[in-house]
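REQUEST
  id: r-88c1
  op: predict_structure
  target: Centrosomal protein 55 like
  payload:
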Amino acid sequence: MTSKGAKETLVSRLGFKSSSSVSKAEAELEKVRKENALLRKKM
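RESPONSE
  id: r-88c1
  status: 200
  body:
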């Protein structure tokens, strides 16, 4: 799992500042997590 600090770092690194962009980043993060989980199951 990603810690809150790591999430904030990722969000700031990607250049998201406003709350709407943060929610977009959260959705993207969730999508990546699901993809990673699927890849792990395939291994």
